[in-house]
Amino acid sequence: MKHTVYLALGSNMGERKELIEKAIGSLGPLGIKVLRVSTLIETAPYGVTDQPSFLNCALEAETELSPAKLLEATASVEKTLGRVRIKRWGPRVIDIDIIFYDSEVIAGPGLTIPHPDMQNRTFVLGPLCELNPGFVHPVLKLSLKELLRLLTAKAPRPQDK
Questions:
Q1: 61 vs 80, more confident
Q2: pTM of the complete model
Q3: What does the domain layout of the chain look like in residue ranges?
């Protein structure tokens, strides 16, 4: 059975655009058919702000992989491209987050879908809205467009400037 998934990608080390393109190109052979990719945007770092800016995008894909196997596949792409996890929210050559898996809600060790902090991140919501603004968050029951509007209506945070 095919599942529609939304992934967010980011890089702030090395040749950022090339790394994101390589990551996207690596998904197909792993059983993740990329359907659409948002525009690349440059954003300030989130969480730990003393680091280079990021390039971010989102993509819509189809897969027959289970959520756990999808996580394994995205982690293998990160590892192949040289990601080493040293510091939470620290610099990274590539980051691939599973944002949505159909409209499923999954809360388990090592995997939470929808991504638990996506509604607080303009660099995730903006690209996702480009792909599917009407998609409804299965927990918050608001569309991506509504979530982005609510987030941008708040006072800007330093990482959003």
A1: 61
A2: 0.89
A3: 3-160
